[in-house]
Amino acid sequence: MRKKIRAVSAVLLALLMILAVPLGVCAKKPSELIVAGIPFGVKFHMEGVIVAGIPSEQGPAAEAGIRRGDIITSIDGEPIASAEKFAEIIKLSDGKTLTLEYTSDSVSRTAQVTPCADESGEYKLGIWIKDSAAGIGTITFIDPETMSFAGLGHGICDSAGGEPLPFSFGSAEEVSLTGIVAGKAGAPGELRGSFAGHKIGKLLKNDLTGVYGVLAEMPEQLEKEKYPVCKSSEIKEGKAYIFATVDGEGRKRYEIEIFDIVKDGKDKNFSVRITDETLLAKTGGIVQGMSGSPIIQNDKIIGAVTHVLVNDPARGYGIFIENMLKAANAPLAKTS
Fold first, then answer.
1. 144: which of 98, 202, 264, 329 is 20 to 30 A away, CA to CA?
2. Model confidence over 80-96: pLDDT tens digits?
3. Are the beta carbons of 266 and 154 closer than 8 angstroms?
């Protein structure tokens, strides 16, 4: 009898393991992806507050070992959800020693700090902090079945360690492009624009490979822009093109060249060179805001533009679309 019970238990356990499938941003396998190449605004809120600067090495926080890029998550056991909350606790501390819980280089740490009063008598720790970030990027793809999307091709990371910032919540916003600062050697360019005040979706994940979320509605101009996914093993060095929006003329196709393909790695999987004379005349190459521009080769989406080389704005890096889909917890779409 006991053997039968054990056998039944084992079967039930196996069934539970099969049924316990994790649900991600793309819960259903997409057969095709809509190639975007349109700009969007990112409003990103962190878990805790990040140390954006330390003006003096003699301040309480610096003396306790706090560094730029560290993320403070609680004070005396109380979670910190905003910069305002952080400042309020320090201000009302009356100079008493506080216990800070923080993350530094992905390691959880604690520190004892004693706020000191400035010339006006207000208690401070001698650091600059922020709890959110905002910027402009490009949407790479949209799943036509789930409305889930991916953008940027790289995560929103801290400037110190380069790790993706802990994600609390965020939104995708409509933006209006207002100008271009062309890239030059040693001085990366950028797309300039403003938030239009209209939320188009929400962010669900911040990863080394990009940001992921769900759109509220499908952009009309993209409904027919469906492409199969190219496996990394099929990508070849040579000609390709990107879809990008860099000015008021809208989404355009620009020629590029792919080289130095690296099969391993999570993000910088191949190098990109802008060869399109029209785009070079407009932007000088890859500029901030173009990150996430989808790359097409042989009528398949192969990946996205991620980074620019500071000393050569015509060159940069790209990421495999496979890696972005994996990060979105979506199986690789079937290729034709």
1. 264
2. 988 999 999 999 999 89
3. no
Which residue type does 165 have? L
* Residue 156 and residue 133 in contact, taking contact as beta carbons nearer than 8 Å: yes
- Write out the two tokens for 335: 């290729």
Of the candidates 267, 286, 280, the one whose C-alpha atom is nearest the C-alpha of residue 154 is 267
- Cβ(42)–Cβ(135) under 8 Å? yes
Non-local CB neighbours of 53 within 8 Å, separated by 6+ positions: 68, 127, 128
Q: What are phi and psi of 59, to 5 degrees?
A: -75, 160
Tokens representing 314? 């015509």
Beta bridge partners of 271: 259, 317
Cα gap 142→125, rounded to integer Å: 44
210-227: buried (b, 16+ CB within 10 Å) or exposed (e) per residue? bbbbbbeeebeebeebbb
To which H or E segment does residue 60 belong? helix 60-63
Q: What is the pLDDT of residues 310-328, one digit of tens each?
A: 999 999 999 999 999 998 8
